[in-house]
Amino acid sequence: MSALVARIAAWANRNMPRREELEHSRFVGPFARRPELWRFTRRSVPRGVAVGLLVGIFALIPGIQILGAALMCVPSRGNIPIAALMTFLSNPATTPLILAGSIYLGNKLGFHADISTFYSLMEHGAGVREWAYWMLSDAAPALVIGLFIISTVTAAVGYLVASFTWNWWVRHKRRAKLEQLMAGRETK
What we know:
membrane; DUF2062; transmembrane helix; transmembrane; single chain; 9 helices; mainly alpha
């Protein structure tokens, strides 16, 4: 398993654009030159987590997710790499669960979407046309409202978890440093 992780990390290092390369881009350059969007701080990391989860779940279109998360990090001053990473929560394995959950939630809130049609479209491997017809029917309001609620709640929970984890990690490191300092004083 570690060989696979090492290969994926090596591939990412070769193919991911560097910040210096992004600074020379006409479109991304003004944002890439802002160092606060790339630093890992106690405020920017939870913001990046929240933005990445919000966009990653609500906009289930690959490619649009990372771009949307990066653009939303600019006004919210979130960490762009963390936001891009968090968009991968919605992947081919989790997308059907997210969609089914959002339709269920939309139906519970009074909108009407036929979830059995959703499952039959998934089972039969329906094409884009069939999905578009289904989305343009009564399913759209239930799906959009459900996605909005799920993504907002997930983003809020992600923000809190990232914030508490960051604070715990800082306290842990400070405590270890203090113990090391105290142990050094006792030996003298």
